Input
Amino acid sequence: MVKNRSVAMVVILSIVTCGIYGLYWLWCAANELDEAGKSSTVSPMVQLLLAIFLGWVGFIIFAISADSNINAIRASRGLSPKDNKVVWIILTIVFWPIMAALVQSEMNEIADA
Output
Protein backbone atom coordinates (compact mmCIF):
# COMPACT_ATOMS: atom_id res chain seq x y z
CA MET A 1 0.00 0.00 0.00
CA VAL A 2 1.30 3.41 -0.97
CA LYS A 3 1.31 5.88 1.93
CA ASN A 4 0.37 9.53 1.72
CA ARG A 5 3.21 11.72 3.05
CA SER A 6 3.74 15.46 3.14
CA VAL A 7 5.76 16.50 0.11
CA ALA A 8 7.19 19.53 1.91
CA MET A 9 8.33 17.42 4.85
CA VAL A 10 10.12 15.00 2.54
CA VAL A 11 12.14 17.88 1.07
CA ILE A 12 12.72 19.73 4.35
CA LEU A 13 13.76 16.65 6.32
CA SER A 14 16.02 15.49 3.50
CA ILE A 15 17.83 18.83 3.53
CA VAL A 16 17.94 19.28 7.33
CA THR A 17 19.26 15.76 7.96
CA CYS A 18 21.87 16.08 5.17
CA GLY A 19 20.25 13.31 3.15
CA ILE A 20 19.73 10.71 5.87
CA TYR A 21 15.95 11.10 5.78
CA GLY A 22 16.17 10.98 1.99
CA LEU A 23 17.72 7.51 2.21
CA TYR A 24 15.03 6.41 4.66
CA TRP A 25 12.36 7.83 2.36
CA LEU A 26 13.91 6.08 -0.65
CA TRP A 27 13.80 2.76 1.20
CA CYS A 28 10.16 3.20 2.24
CA ALA A 29 9.01 4.51 -1.15
CA ALA A 30 10.87 1.80 -3.08
CA ASN A 31 9.33 -0.92 -0.91
CA GLU A 32 5.82 0.52 -1.15
CA LEU A 33 6.02 0.98 -4.91
CA ASP A 34 7.58 -2.45 -5.44
CA GLU A 35 4.82 -4.14 -3.43
CA ALA A 36 2.04 -2.25 -5.21
CA GLY A 37 3.42 -2.09 -8.75
CA LYS A 38 5.51 -5.26 -9.02
CA SER A 39 7.20 -4.01 -12.21
CA SER A 40 10.58 -3.02 -10.81
CA THR A 41 13.64 -4.77 -12.20
CA VAL A 42 15.89 -3.64 -9.33
CA SER A 43 15.08 -4.61 -5.75
CA PRO A 44 14.55 -1.88 -3.15
CA MET A 45 17.63 -3.08 -1.22
CA VAL A 46 19.86 -2.68 -4.29
CA GLN A 47 18.38 0.77 -4.93
CA LEU A 48 19.18 1.80 -1.35
CA LEU A 49 22.72 0.41 -1.47
CA LEU A 50 23.37 2.17 -4.78
CA ALA A 51 22.09 5.44 -3.28
CA ILE A 52 24.32 5.02 -0.22
CA PHE A 53 27.50 4.07 -2.05
CA LEU A 54 27.10 5.76 -5.44
CA GLY A 55 24.95 8.75 -4.49
CA TRP A 56 22.81 10.13 -7.28
CA VAL A 57 23.29 6.98 -9.41
CA GLY A 58 21.13 5.09 -6.90
CA PHE A 59 18.53 7.85 -7.00
CA ILE A 60 18.47 7.66 -10.81
CA ILE A 61 17.85 3.91 -10.62
CA PHE A 62 15.12 4.63 -8.07
CA ALA A 63 13.54 7.27 -10.35
CA ILE A 64 13.39 4.84 -13.28
CA SER A 65 12.00 2.06 -11.09
CA ALA A 66 9.49 4.40 -9.43
CA ASP A 67 8.21 5.57 -12.81
CA SER A 68 7.74 1.97 -13.92
CA ASN A 69 5.91 0.98 -10.72
CA ILE A 70 3.74 4.10 -10.63
CA ASN A 71 2.65 3.52 -14.23
CA ALA A 72 1.87 -0.13 -13.42
CA ILE A 73 -0.28 0.98 -10.47
CA ARG A 74 -1.99 3.64 -12.60
CA ALA A 75 -2.72 1.06 -15.32
CA SER A 76 -4.19 -1.39 -12.80
CA ARG A 77 -6.55 1.35 -11.58
CA GLY A 78 -7.60 2.38 -15.07
CA LEU A 79 -5.68 5.67 -15.05
CA SER A 80 -3.58 6.86 -17.96
CA PRO A 81 0.19 6.43 -17.58
CA LYS A 82 2.58 9.37 -17.26
CA ASP A 83 6.16 9.23 -18.47
CA ASN A 84 8.13 11.21 -15.89
CA LYS A 85 11.41 9.31 -16.16
CA VAL A 86 13.43 11.92 -18.01
CA VAL A 87 12.29 14.80 -15.81
CA TRP A 88 13.03 12.81 -12.67
CA ILE A 89 16.48 11.79 -13.91
CA ILE A 90 17.39 15.40 -14.74
CA LEU A 91 16.10 16.61 -11.37
CA THR A 92 18.05 13.87 -9.61
CA ILE A 93 21.27 15.12 -11.16
CA VAL A 94 20.47 18.77 -10.40
CA PHE A 95 18.93 18.44 -6.89
CA TRP A 96 17.51 15.07 -5.87
CA PRO A 97 15.14 16.28 -3.10
CA ILE A 98 13.00 17.91 -5.81
CA MET A 99 12.78 14.54 -7.59
CA ALA A 100 11.77 12.99 -4.27
CA ALA A 101 9.06 15.63 -3.90
CA LEU A 102 7.65 14.89 -7.35
CA VAL A 103 7.71 11.13 -6.79
CA GLN A 104 5.99 11.58 -3.43
CA SER A 105 3.40 13.80 -5.08
CA GLU A 106 2.66 11.03 -7.58
CA MET A 107 2.51 8.52 -4.72
CA ASN A 108 0.05 10.77 -2.87
CA GLU A 109 -2.10 10.99 -6.00
CA ILE A 110 -2.17 7.17 -6.21
CA ALA A 111 -2.89 6.83 -2.48
CA ASP A 112 -5.82 9.24 -2.74
CA ALA A 113 -7.33 7.56 -5.81
About this structure: The helical segments are 7-16, 20-37, 44-54, 56-76, 85-112.
